[in-house]
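Appendix C reproduces, verbatim, an entry submitted by the partner laboratory led by Prof. M.T., so that reviewers can inspect both the input and the predicted structure.
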Amino acid sequence: MRGTSGGDGLASRARPSGRDCRVSVVQLSPIGHTPASTAPRFDPEGVLEAARDLRASVHVVQEASSVGGRVGVARGALEDALRPALQPALEHRATLGPVPPEWLGDRSFLDAHGVRFPYVAGAMANGIATAELVIAMAQARMLAFFGAAGLLPDRIAAALDQIDAALGHTDASWGANLIHSPNEPALEEAVCALYLARGVRRVSASAYVDLTPAVVRFAASGLHEEGGVVVRHNHVFAKISRPEVARRFMSPPPKATLDALVARSHLTEREAALALRVPVAEDITVESDSGGHTDNQALGAVFPVVARLRDRLCAEHRYPRAIRLGAAGGIGTPASVASAFSLGASYVLTGSINQAAVESGLSDAGKALLAQAEMSDVVMAPAADMFEQGVQVQVLRRGTLFGPRAARLHQLYVAHDSLDALSADARARLEEEVLGASVDEVWGLTEAFFSERDPAEIERAHADPKHKMALVFRWYLGLSSKWAITGEPARRLDYQIWCGPAMGAFNDWARGSFLEDPKERRAVVIALNLLEGAATLTRAQQLRAHGAPVPPAAFDFRPKRLSE
């Protein structure tokens, strides 16, 4: 539908516009504009029109001529709305201000990161969150993180080159992933060092159960003082789903860690001293039931718990700035976005749905599978990076056998001490039904891989047969995600595609619209639709809370093209 003076349409594109956060996806009229006065409306259609006029104030009025008079809405000047005409005298119940999408979250988030919208595209690993996705989001003044997890520093550096070439020296905001790597701490430190050398200002810290020297180093590097207030140079977005992990990121880093970093010349003494006055992260992403690493938490349960912890720690440490909380996991529809903001989220972060976007690094075959997913088409499976610890990730179940095959690997690992302990039948089934190659062939490939990446793993495997078995099984777990990225036809049933219920919810919402087609799913288009939809639902709830007869249609925002 073509936009009207009410602003019922998405902009033709999301243009950067400096720090002016008043520029929204709706560009036909400014925020706070006063539309032409119209007679108060009491019918569902009139209330629906008012609910969708996000950039104007709306008046809730009630007939005063009788007990229980009708409640309706009016737009335009308040004095015109209350002026008796053919209708009975009206009483003014409330005036609701504009609800532009930019204002759904915490305004300090926009200011701190120089963005227009309180929306973040998460760092899907192995480069699935591509440089192209980061660039597109940054140009629309939204934040995105490059999916560096699982990649070596030279591959990450190439992506940083691509992002720098596209965005130049503008004030565009973006970041990259720093993942906890308990099996490869040297790699984690190398990636951190790369980010510091290249001037990456934001990292999404994921899969952490405790603080590591690398994440503390990044957070504390560049700390300085202005007017008695500690000012950050780098920003850590800590993705957490447990209060005990959130506490570590919401607290100042341990002094012992800071002292060790100073001893290694990774921090100055001044930076270490200032780090004791601020939290490790001022942006905490509360993750609920998501794709990939997840504790399958319900956002409505975990978010308030973390919020209360945040309030206690901020008061205890007397931080100069409040810690912001974002919401992630299960974010795939306007209703879920609106719900997250109603809990108090400063921003929302999306993951699974961006994996299905045109700019993602997932293969077209993988995106086609995601486009068919229902909410229940997900399953938990062993994680490649923390296989021995029994950590799991949530993946797509429909159209792939990765979930049950990966589960079989973990069962074999738990039940046996070595590959040699497998029976002949179990070994044959393993090679034929899961690995697709002989155990000896897989070990040869694994040995060659770690000889280049981390020779210590090979030495450990020769000394510990159970660790050798873990490395062989991790070969399959690691390559299965890469097969999904490259679209390896012979391995289609082995695709590991990280996916949460949000993907199925998004598909249900997009059904019957242009977004049903995977080729139409661009990250910015998805984001703008979700944000305007959330703002529309928020306005509808505001009207209903003030007694207006809001029709169900007001809570059903349908996807729109940017030109509509």
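Confidence is low (pLDDT under 50) at residues 1-9, 11-29. Additional entries are available on request from the coordinating office.
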